Structure to design on (146 residues):
């Protein structure tokens, strides 16, 4: 008796079309099975164009507002948190700010003189106010330390 290992194959039948008109999809009898593996998953997702439209509580503000979110996924990477954030305008703004701050931090870490100047400015509020006046920025209340 010869032992043979069979491949593990799973078949899934599901309507993953979202709210597309049936005319666009064709009759169920005429649709073909799609073989999906790690090499073609992005292509299959691009063709299927899964999307998600929902309204969520706005956690970026203290008020009770809500955000409309429309997400589209064209590859597995689109499910990563940063890629999702890029599709939501307020989160994209915060992500862009974070990236710019990371760039500044990278430059500061390689420029000791700039790092020292920034530490001096942050340690001396009078210098901050003088610099703000020089730049034409109106005096604002200093942020509270947390």
């Amino acid at each position: 008796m010869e032992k043979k290992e069979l491949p593990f194959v799973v078949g899934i039948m599901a309507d993953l079309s979202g709210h597309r008109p049936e005319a666009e999809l064709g009759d169920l009898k005429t649709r073909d099975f799609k073989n999906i593996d790690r090499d073609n998953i992005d292509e299959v997702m691009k063709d299927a164009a899964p999307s998600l439209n929902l309204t969520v509580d706005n956690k970026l503000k203290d008020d009770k507002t809500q955000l409309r979110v429309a997400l589209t996924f064209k590859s597995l990477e689109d499910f990563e948190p940063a890629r999702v954030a890029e599709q939501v305008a307020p989160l994209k703004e915060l992500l862009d700010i974070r990236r710019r701050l990371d760039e500044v931090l990278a430059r500061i870490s390689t420029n000791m003189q700039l790092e020292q100047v920034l530490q001096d400015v942050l340690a001396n509020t009078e210098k901050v106010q003088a610099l703000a006046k020089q730049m034409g920025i109106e005096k604002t209340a200093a942020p509270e330390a947390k």
Observations:
- Residues 15 and 28 are 10 Å apart (CA to CA).
- The chain is about 40% helix and 10% strand.
